[in-house]
Amino acid sequence: MSDVPISRRSLLAGAAGVLGAHALQQVGAHRGNGGAPGGAVAPDPTKIPGAPMRALGQRSPYEQPRRIVTQDSSLTPLQDLYGIITPADLHFERHHAGVPAIDPQRYKLLIHGMVERPMVFDLAALERFPSVARLHFLECGGNGTLSFRGIRPDFSPQLVDGLTSTSEWIGVPLATLFREVGVKPGATWFLAEGGDAAVMSRSIPIEKAWDDALIAYGQNGEALRPEQGYPARLFLPGWEANANVKWIRRIEVADRPFMTREETARYTDPLPNDTARMFSFVMDAKSIITFPAFPVVLPDTGWWEITGIAWSGRGLITRVDVSTDGGRSWAAAELQQPVLPKCHTLFRYLWKWDGRDAMLMSRAVDQTGSVQPTLDQLRRARGAGTSYHFNHIRAWHVRSDGEVFFGLEG
Amino acid sequence: MRGVAVVLIALSGWGCGRGGRGGAQPGLPPTFGFGRSATAPEIAAWDIDVRPDGLGLPPGSGTAQAGAAVYAARCAMCHGATGTEARWPYPRLVGREPRQGFPFGRDPRLVKTVGNYWPFATTLYDYINRAMPLNAPGSLTPDEVYGVVAYVLWRNEIIADTAVIDARTLPQVVMPARDRFVVDDRGDGPDFR
């Protein structure tokens, strides 16, 4: 370890750039992540009274983590986060016609179709039902596209996989609402429709409602943020984010899927055998090392803790293996508690760097025995032209000069 | 070749295995009595979806000839004069290449269009009606939506420019990619697919 008493996170570069605009983060003094103090800081803070209380807290001016905003999404700065919770203001975004402004007093959720009692629930009614709170990741089905096509060495974890975030979600089980309206026999699907300008809609197998689907209105101790579906959204643990319809205003129960644009023209996965997979909801087992990773520069050989996150839409992460030699040998990483189903899981691996070129990789295994595939395995199974569900193993090339670049095996 | 009917039968059975879980739960009342009954007018006002069997299609009709003017005025600024000129992020609507096979999984250079990738013509009505045009969503009349649907189908060489598209004819339009979609066959465990 370096003699300089620096915080691990102090090494991580700010995310305030755009694609490819990161500068290498040379380690020296504490840099924070891109911020600068708004005013003069006393040479000795113990000699002057501190600031008063305030009604709404703010981050230290030295800490300014930012989403990267692209044409159609904004990306969570995975390399700037501690632990598994994503601060709500850093949760990734993907909208299909912008973020609607919705008055909670006028909000209503309509449930109709193959039900005994078509009903309308306002927000107060939804919040009056027995509620549940669960920690789950939410990942866009297209997360990692840039690690499959268009790979560049100057990609940070945020650019590679920033379309995943984890929150505590609070809401009412959809099963409770379905019992309230009385789902008719023979119902097998439901349409979930949003109140945004796209009136975004997806068909969902009704079994997911009986299993673990929520109508969520809370996120990390507060109401949903507008970008996450305020005042209420569908939440489908472990399933691709697009199906977790935000700003949900209507559910229609039916005996077949509706074949909306987002489940036919989009969010389908072409395969090498001239077909395309549809309704591929479950997010496969996956992991990514978030330290060390571009744009970090390791200043020193010796002990470094490799850290990252792993997750699976099928349940618990049971194992993460780490390789420092490009996949020739693997060793089990330590899983940081809590390890929760369908949730980001932190992993750690203590590594003594000898100063030579190294290729860092991580490989997640979930409770069903599903193993994160290599890029080659994914290409063979799904084809070079496939879309969505890019869960192959990611790699970081640590060069002998300490610079770290995104790369792939070999 | 797989027929879409087979796909739909398989899909309709998705939830049957452990279904029927709408019964009372131990420790919970059968219902709570929260919420209120929905009125027929408020259901009708929001029930805009259109299914492949045509359920949800409104009265009205259009042809490619009639839709061309609507397309030019409301759609072309993003999707291009003929539907082939759109540049990212606006999707290209028109194109049948490659005419043989469905090699999207093998060739990342292929551009997915309505003509070569969309499996259901009814999806066009549903989507245009709910979400288009981007700067004024939900502003087209049923006749205008039918006309734009007909125009896009005609440009993709799927119907004739004189064909009348309405609630009866649209579900009968067979899209070139109709038989290409399969239900998710990934499962739990080590077999990566």
Describe the protein in words.
The complex is a heterodimer of chains A (410) and B (193). Chain A is mainly beta. Helices cover 8% and strands 29% of the residues of chain A. Chain A is built from five helices and 23 strands. Chain A has helices at residues 123-128, 157-161, 174-181, 206-211, 375-382, and strands at 68-69, 74-75, 108-113, 119-122, 132-139, 164-173, 189-194, 201-205, 214-219, 222-223, 233-235, 248-254, 269-270, 276-278, 286-291, 302-311, 317-323, 331-332, 334-335, 345-353, 358-366, 395-398, 404-407. In chain A, strands 4-3-12-7-8 form a five-stranded mixed β-sheet. In chain A, strands 5, 6, 9, 10 and 11 form a five-stranded antiparallel β-sheet that branches. Chain A has a five-stranded antiparallel β-sheet with strand order 18-17-21-22-23, with no helix packed on it. In chain A, strand 22 and strand 23 (404-407) form a beta hairpin. Chain B is mostly helical. Chain B is built from seven helices and four strands. Chain B has helices at 4-12, 40-46, 64-74, 76-79, 114-117, 122-131, 142-155, and strands spanning 36-37, 61-62, 165-166, 181-183. The model of chain B is unreliable at 1-6 and 12-19 (pLDDT under 50). At the A-B interface, strand 3, strand 4, helix 3, strand 7 and helix 4 of A face helix 1, strand 1, helix 2, helix 6 and strand 4 of B.
